[in-house]
Amino acid sequence: MDQYVPAHEYSADLVVEDFMIPSDSAGISLHLRNKRAAAQKACSAERTILMVHGATYSSTSLFDVPLGGTSFMDHLAAQGYDVFALDVRGYGGSTRPPEMDAPAEASPPLVRTDVAVRDLASAVAYILERRGIPRLNLVGMSWGGSVAGAYTADNNDKIEKLALIAPLWLLDTPAPIDSGGALGAYRKVPVLGFRERWLAAAPEAARASLIPEGWFERWAEASLATDPQGNTERPRVMRAVNGPIQDIRDYWAAGKPLYDASDIRVPVLLVHAEWDRDVTTSSTQDLFLSLKRAPYRRWVEIGEGTHMVLLEKNRLQAFNAISQFLAERCT
Questions:
Q1: Non-local CB neighbours of 140 within 8 Å, separated by 6+ positions
Q2: How confident is the model at residue 10 (pLDDT cuts 50, 70, 90)?
Q3: Mean pLDDT of 245-257
Q4: Which residues pair with 272 in a beta bridge?
Q5: Number of domains within the chain
Q6: How far is residue 40 CA from its own chain's centroid?
Q7: What backbone torsions phi and psi does residue 250 show, to the nearest 5 degrees?
Q8: Considering only CA atoms, which of 246, 300, 294 is closest in space to residue 273?
Q9: Which of 186, 195, 305, 310 has the largest CB neighbor count within 10 A?
Q10: Cα separation of 35 and 2, whole Å?
């Protein structure tokens, strides 16, 4: 299965596989994409990565759209990593809960963080068994950082290192993703109209050069393609579950951590960008200071970037910070 990026756009030096793996719920399968160098034969915990997305866009949308000729997954695979990317249920190529076929107001918010943690657990178990390794590295973005952090806090023995990009943590300002009002099962995201909110986080003088020409359109089309049902509407939309927003209201915006960061006992990297309005610098600092039992921790701040830094002109700074962190041996 390859729904999002035509196969001819992949480098001939990379092997690309897509899996549908079972979740812990009947009728729900999870999409898992894998990329690795064709010459790579041996598997190891240190060189295996599992990535998990945020509250709106799938892992394929965030990590595997080849902007400027390469995606984040391509970048890591070319450096010798065995890279997997998970779509939590309701996202991307994974099964959408049946409630998403009914009007949103007919059901409460779908896919709370605890459900996503269970899906992540299913993916970790699948990869460890398939590759015959005891641990792997986790990379999470935004809400995916909460999911990865919560999983790691209870499963340190299965994680080598943890890298988090703009991870959701306690909020000191209103969450831009939460527009207020009653929450149904899911929301409809007009992706092509997202550019304005994205650029609004940057100073006006920097907006014209933040996203290189053509990148937004390519990314938006790839994101919309993950939800064919939403594409039948005008304007075209992509459905996203509301469970993460309900958790923002119940936990992060209410000053209640969803998990105890001091339970994480593996090396941790935090990557943040200076114009991020969704996860502020002070929120990142609070998480950094809460990682009291990590063997070592690092915080990398990327200048001239927003919450979507992985898709912007300075994305290679984030890519390189993460690959360096995963590659180094600090013993």
A1: 51, 52, 146, 147, 148, 149, 162, 163, 164, 165, 167
A2: very low
A3: 97
A4: 301
A5: 1
A6: 25
A7: -80, -25
A8: 300
A9: 305
A10: 12
- In angstroms, how far is the first alpha carbon of the chain from the final one? 41
Residue 2 lies in a domain: no
For the chain, what is the mean pLDDT?
94
What band does 331 get if pLDDT is binned at 50, 70 and 90?
A: low
Query: What angle is formed at CA 215 by the lines to CA 212 and CA 216, rounded to 5 degrees?
Result: 110
Query: Exposed (0-12), middle (13-18) or buried (19+): which is 6, by Cβ within 10 Å?
Result: exposed
Q: Is residue 1 part of a domain?
A: no
Q: Which amino acid is it at 180? A: G
Q: Rg of the chain's alpha carbons, rounded to an integer?
A: 18
**Mean of the pLDDT values across residues 232-246?**
94
Give buried/exposed letters for 270-289 (b at 16+ CB in 10 A, else e): bbbbebbebbbeebbebbbe
What is the average per-residue pLDDT within 266-275? 98
Report the pLDDT value the prediction gives residue 11, as an integer from 0 to 100: 57
Q: What is the CATH number of the domain that holds 297?
A: 3.40.50.1820
- Residue 27 and residue 99: Cα distance in Å, rounded? 13
From residue 63, alpha-carbon distances to 72, 84, 159, 223, 315 in Å are 5, 10, 20, 11, 11
Residue 18's domain spans which residues? 7-327
Element (H, E) at 282: helix 281-290
